[in-house]
Amino acid sequence: MEMKKPVIKSIPYEEFKDNETLEALINELNKERTNVVVGKLDDLINWGRSNSLWSLTFATSCCGIEFMAVGAARYDFARFGFEVTRNSPRQADLIMVAGTITHKMAPVLKRLYDQMAEPKYVVAVGGCAISGGPFKGSYHVLNGVDKIIPVDVYIPGCPPRPEAMLYGMMQLQRKVKVENFFGDKNRKYSRSNMPSDPIIVTNVPVSQNENTEEK
Amino acid sequence: MSPEFIELEILRPRMEELHRNGMDFLRDIIGMDWGEEGLGAIYALENSSTHENIQIAVRCTDREKPQIPSVCDLWSVAEFYEREVYDFFGIVFTGHPDMRRLYLRNDWIGYPLRKDYDESEAINPIRMESEVPEDLQRQSEIEEDAARELFVKQTNKIFGDQYIINIGPQHPATHGVLRFRLALDGEEIRKIDVHCGYIHRGIEKLSEKLTYPQILAFTDRLDYLSAHQNRHALCMCIEKAIGLDITDRTQYIRTIMDELQRIDSHLLFLSCAAMDLGAITTFIYGFRDREKILDIFEEVTGGRLIQNYNIIGGVQADITPDFANKVKEYCKYQKEKIKEYNDVFTYNTITRKRMIGVGKISREDAISYGCTGGTGRAAGWACDVRKRHPYALYDKVDFKEILYTNGDCYDRYLVRLDEIMESIHIIEQLIDNIPDGDYKVKTKPIIRIPEGRYSASVEGSRGEFGVFIESHGDKSPYRIKFRPMGLPLVAAMHKILKGAKVADLIAIGATLDYVIPDIDR
Questions:
Q1: Which of B103, B105, B199, B220 best tests the A interface by mutation, with the highest count of A CBs <10 A?
Q2: Is residue A210 in some structural domain?
Q3: What residues of B are in contact with residue A148 (Cβ under 8 Å)?
Q4: Domain count along chain B
Q5: Does A198 reside within a domain?
Q6: Last residue of a domain, which of B38, B66, B94?
Q7: Labelling B491: which of A207, B220, B396, B409 has CA 20 to 30 A away?
Q8: Nearest-CA neighbor of B472 among B117, B208, B111?
Q9: CATH number assigned to the domain comprising residue A188
Q10: ipTM of the prediction
């Protein structure tokens, strides 16, 4: 059986901006066909996993406040299944690196990432986590978390708007859907510690109708 | 105001004399590197009753082993300020009980704010192994007891043989990446050791290479909940230095924006304090109302959290035509909602039980530790910069300075809640009278500040935010120093926590309302 396109309820497939990265991932996975039973089980488990992504509350600076705003009344990420935030890395599926990572924080971040259970994902939120942002030239700032941990989704902005965060999280949902959960093909450690291709959130689609997201 | 230079030998007697004469508020200690003239420090002092200011500077020509006598027995907050200067400049304060680095790792090589500091990656690479606290490095000794049995004797120069637990840097109740090490006796806290620097971004060093308009962007990212006020302080300082007069319209816009930002910050304080104590509903309420301010910000400035609105000589863009209506509508809405917070949180039994009488700080301690803002005012210290040294339009509007007397968590909470009402009161006086005119004064693209030392301060959302610039006539500052609002609060932690339980730490941390990037800079 073949892996299908990752469809999520929130936005139609065509409206996402970066479908090529995921299609390349699907093609790679489809090279070796999957057993029907295992494939169906994968679909079921990925559907469940993608709709209950638990994030670690890891906010070092400004982006963390926007992350809280996404969790609060107006933007309400509970609509997408991200509302459970965990304070312990042992219980989290993903780590949202929201804020600047400094030299002193780098070993702590790495340790938190190592403590998380597989499968785990990393979302780099904001300019600082992606490249060092405005503090790039500083003696005490790590220029991009991808230097120490593999990143799955980048959400640029300083800080990113809540809509951009939701869009980035939906991209992560789609990425979760194109994984062979059984077997080790898409596990991070099986590919000699190389991160899978990241998705970069650009041009967040602007919905004409405010309720499009809820349809 | 230019500082008074005195000899190193007479620093102690002079400081003791000033302290006796009522200079009881140490605003800041600014470490300096004057190149060949040596290293030094500038002490900014204030009299808490007459609001008289004075700056004292000392120089120390020995660059290899610079030493300055400590003043931390006179002003308690100096303990942390001096550790900061030691961390960045390597000046040892003789007589200081605990001369450790405050921000950087203890295996960091060099002192980054010195002019001859080498920033290359080879000297200070990103170290991926965890930092071992200094007090744990050389602690084990093998000893022999009378029965000739070997055992390991543990000595810890900070905590002795007390039981230590670690909180942070990744902990939801520390509001960011602050780290505490606590010595516990059962549930009671005996001693606290604060580790800062997990979000130290080196803003002051970065600024020395940038032009003045470029530096403005950093101020928003220091304390992102006082973005307007921080930027206001820096703009004000630069405008003062180059002698630029700004228009009335700008003053009105800046004052209104500052107050909106204060409400925004206090609402976030309310939400987070409530969530820390387990009241999720209040969190949702607070954020719901905060979004309404963010809408106004977004419409006028284009940014939600970080607005980049003030510029040197004015503001980035004019206010929108329906700004006044939106703000008035919001003020009306917010006044009603305060009742809702009171019903659900303020008069709640659990809130009162967890806050009343917990984490007390006296007025004298608040001054000695320099705890400005809500913490100081809850303890009865009238420390509002808007009243002490009025700037912008604060001498023209009528408002009360909210003062409480107990200095406990509940008072700190009530001060903020009342200040929301007071800020609305200020906005309502101004919003209908915004004069016509230009919203900015044209400035040169490259701004050079004449040689000298300048300082300005504003009332940020959680205390006095100060800016100090030393210029040598270039397009970038020779030294820029921001007075953090949160560092004195964190310095006072061990005083406030004395005798408190571990669970109280959460309530105390929440009501002190520090923002870590502002402490660490």
A1: B199
A2: no
A3: 126, 128
A4: 2
A5: yes
A6: B94
A7: B220
A8: B208
A9: 3.40.50.12280
A10: 0.85
Report the distance separating Cα B183 and Cα B163, nearest Å.
Answer: 5
Mutate to test the interface with A, among B88, B123, B200, B225 (most CBs of A within 10 A): B200
Mean pLDDT to the nearest integer, B238-246: 88
Chosen for mutation from A125, A135, A140 (greatest number of chain B CBs closer than 10 Å) is A140
* pLDDT averaged over 10-residue windows placed end to end, chain A, 215 residues: 74 80 78 75 84 86 87 86 84 88 89 85 90 87 87 88 89 83 54 54 59 41
**Alpha carbon distance B362, B149 (integer Å):** 50
Asked if residue A196 belongs to a domain, the reply is yes
Residue B127 sits at the chain A interface (C-beta within 8 Å): yes
For residue A58, what are the domain limits? Answer: 23-203
Residue B492 covered by a domain: yes
A143 is written with which tokens? Answer: 């220029």
Range of the domain at B82: 4-94
Q: Residue A86's closest CA among A55, A110, A109?
A: A55
Q: Given this model, what pLDDT does residue A1 score? A: 66
Query: At B26, which CATH number?
Result: 3.30.460.80
Q: Write out the two tokens for B102.
A: 């405050």
Of B169, B268, B288, the CB nearest to A74: B288
- B188 within domain boundaries: no
State whether residue A96 is helix, strand or coil.
strand
* Nearest residue of chain A to residue B265 (CA atoms): A65
Split into its structural domains, chain A has a count of 1
Q: What is the mean pLDDT of residues B390-409?
A: 88
* Residues of chain A contacting residue B126, judged by C-beta atoms under 8 Å apart: 103, 106, 142, 147-148
Burial (CB < 10 A; 0-12, 13-18, 19+), residue B209, is exposed
In the DSSP assignment, the letter for residue A20 is H
Facing residues of B490 across strands? none
Query: Whole-model pTM?
Result: 0.86
Interchain CB distance below 8 Å, B287 and A158: no
Q: Is B275 among the domain residues?
A: yes
- The DSSP line for B25-74 is EEEEEEEEE-GGG-EEEEEEEE-TTT--EEEEEEEE--SSS-EEE--TTT
